[in-house]
């Protein structure tokens, strides 16, 4: 999906600071959904490839890469994703690269379809913040070109959740050139 983020998300400035109080809406929403919504547990392992940054971080290519690795090791993986009208290009790209791909308006329906086709591993392309699905492994992606913008939550910045939530995920991947300073920040 092509997304043109606002320029004020690139750095801390007057507009992003003025929008900071509205970030409380994002924080409250994230807390609310975590404690109110119960998750669906698949009968097979679910690997989630997601991000906390609005925009492209390489989730789909990484999902396809993991799919191919698992196929080589004789697993029967499937990639699933939630259907959005604006994601048709990513859906078509994924369909052209893998044999087992399911998408629906509800991720749980895609998982059920994959289970019925006897897949034994689910790779969920996107959906890190979706608490309706319980994941067994979470991989968080960053793009080395634009890691976290100004570091603020929506709507003041491009982050869907606070950066310190990275401790809740098992693997962090930076797509692109190496960024040692950011790697150190992730480890702390």
Put simply, the count of helices is 6
- What's the helical proportion of residues? 25-40%
Biggest β-sheet, characterized? 6 strands, parallel
What structural class is derived from the secondary structure elements? Answer: alpha/beta
Write out the strand line-up for the largest beta sheet, numbering strands in chain order: 3-2-4-1-5-6
Distance between the termini: 32 Å
- Radius of gyration over C-alpha positions, nearest whole angstrom: 17 Å
The global form is globular
Question: In total, how many beta strands?
Answer: 6
Q: List segments where confidence is low: pLDDT < 50 over at least 5 consecutive residues.
A: none
Mean pLDDT: 92
- In terms of DSSP E residues, the strand content is 15-25%
SSE sequence, one letter per element:
HHEHEHEHEEEH
Key traits:
188 residues, six-stranded parallel beta sheet
Short characterization:
Helix content is 33%, strand content 17%. With 188 residues, it is an alpha/beta fold. Helix 4 (88-97) links the parallel strand 2 (77-82) and strand 3.
């Amino acid at each position: 999906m092509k997304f043109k983020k606002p320029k004020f998300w690139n750095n801390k400035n007057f507009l992003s600071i003025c929008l900071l109080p509205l970030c409380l809406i994002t924080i409250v929403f994230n807390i609310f959904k975590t404690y109110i919504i119960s998750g669906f547990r698949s009968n097979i392992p679910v690997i989630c490839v997601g991000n906390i940054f609005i925009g492209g971080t390489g989730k789909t290519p990484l999902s396809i890469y993991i799919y191919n690795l698992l196929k080589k090791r004789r697993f029967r993986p499937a990639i699933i994703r939630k259907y959005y009208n604006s994601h048709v290009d990513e859906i078509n790209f994924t369909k052209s690269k893998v044999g087992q791909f399911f998408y629906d308006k509800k991720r749980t329906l895609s998982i059920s379809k994959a289970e019925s086709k006897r897949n034994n591993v689910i790779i969920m392309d996107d959906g890190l913040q979706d608490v309706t699905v319980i994941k067994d492994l979470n991989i968080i992606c960053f793009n080395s070109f634009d890691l976290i913008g100004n570091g603020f939550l929506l709507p003041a910045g491009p982050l869907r959740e606070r950066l310190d939530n990275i401790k809740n995920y098992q693997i962090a991947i930076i797509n692109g050139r190496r960024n040692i300073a950011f790697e150190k920040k992730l480890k702390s």
